From TrEMBL:
UniProt KW keywords: Membrane, Transmembrane, Transmembrane helix
Signal peptide feature range: none
Residue stretches making up the EamA domain: 31-155, 168-304
Family the entry assigns: Belongs to the EamA transporter family.
One Pfam family hit: EamA
Subcellular location: Membrane
The protein's name: Multidrug DMT transporter permease
Annotated GO CC locations: membrane
InterPro entries, alphabetized: AA-Vitamin_Transporters, EamA_dom, EmrE-like
Keyword Repeat recorded: no
Chain segments annotated as transmembrane: 21-43, 49-71, 83-102, 108-129, 141-161, 167-185, 197-220, 232-254, 261-280, 286-305
Species of the source: Caballeronia fortuita
Keyword Membrane in record: yes
Superkingdom of the source species: Bacteria
Length: 313
């Protein structure tokens, strides 16, 4: 998987990666869903060894250090406007999204309800594009989103409980979802600018900004020192390579080739794939409702993809 994730992003010319593999968009989206879904089980695994915010802090620290030699020249030559723009996108897309979701779960919002709220992302991006930029969406887009959400609800039905959180805490996953929606629409529009950065440099800025944000959040609660255990190291490596470089990297890459509505809608399949990850790693049982929900979500994604194709054609 690491080898695949290294070879997929075509914009990595600045990192001297010799292979420019241009996979079809559906193949990239499939890889994105697999990598994105790995983050949920990675966090679950990591919480057995350290606080969530500490794992997230070191996740971004590892990427920031490892990517720097490959992007230093591009970062140094970038305009101040491009750097500030990507810093804000990273603050919304990584730090805002993860902080809202993770803090909501920590305060008692159920995981199933949080997942359902997070999967409102396509709705958030479409509404934001409509309100801010005046973009119109066809009936297939809205019908596809309805099917996608219905499928997610079927998959997560056994986990859809309110939880024990205070009433205001339920706004945190919503804020996290909208934070990623803002970043999604902004990133899609910034990619067309002349001073836009390559994918590796973009990810480095996003992770560096998130590193500072989570350093403040975790530092206010306790120590930033890593936990000396193999489980902690594995959890950090898992979420850094698969979830961030793979999930977010492929998310931004797909966004360069399609609309925010289509790319975000593919994540309707994330709960189903997450359950497959949980079955493979933790032995959790699979179910027929999960398969049914996946089929329903898949139908919604196909409908939205057709709307995107007709709009571009």
């Amino acid at each position: 998987m690491k080898k695949v994730l290294r070879s997929c992003p075509a914009p990595l010319a600045s990192t001297a990666v010799p292979l420019r593999l241009r996979l079809p968009l559906p193949a990239l989206e499939a890889l994105m869903v697999v990598a994105w879904s790995s983050g949920f089980v990675g966090i679950r695994f990591s919480t057995n060894y350290a606080p969530v915010l500490l794992v997230v802090f070191w996740r971004f620290a590892a990427i920031t250090v490892c990517l720097l030699p490959f992007v230093a020249r591009e970062i140094a030559g970038a305009s101040r406007a491009a750097l500030m723009r990507q810093a804000l996108i990273g603050l919304f897309g990584l730090a805002g999204y993860i902080a809202g979701v993770a803090k909501g779960i920590e305060l008692g919002v159920s995981t199933g309800l949080t997942a359902l709220i997070a999967n409102l992302l396509p709705v958030g991006t479409v509404v934001l594009s409509r309100v801010v930029f005046g973009e119109r969406s066809g009936w297939r887009t809205w019908a596809g989103m309805a099917l996608g959400l219905a499928g997610v609800a079927i998959v997560c039905r056994d986990a859809l409980t309110p939880g024990s959180a205070p009433s205001w805490a339920y706004a945190l996953p919503v804020a996290g979802m909208m934070s990623l929606a803002v970043a999604t629409v902004s990133q899609q529009r910034s990619a067309s600018r002349r001073d836009s950065l390559g994918l590796a440099a973009t990810l480095w800025i996003h992770c560096a900004v998130s590193l500072l944000a989570f350093g403040c959040l975790q530092g206010a609660k306790g120590s930033l020192l890593p936990v000396p255990s193999a489980g902690f190291v594995f959890g950090v490596a898992w979420t850094a390579v698969l979830s961030t470089l793979g999930g977010y990297g492929l998310y931004w890459l797909c966004l360069r080739r399609s609309s925010p509505a289509r790319v975000s809608s593919v994540l309707f399949l994330s709960p189903s794939v997450t359950l497959v990850w949980a079955w493979a790693m933790f032995g959790e049982a699979l179910s027929w409702p999960m398969l049914a929900g996946t089929i329903v979500s898949g139908a919604g994604i196909v409908m939205m993809a057709r709307q995107t194709a007709s709009a571009q054609g």
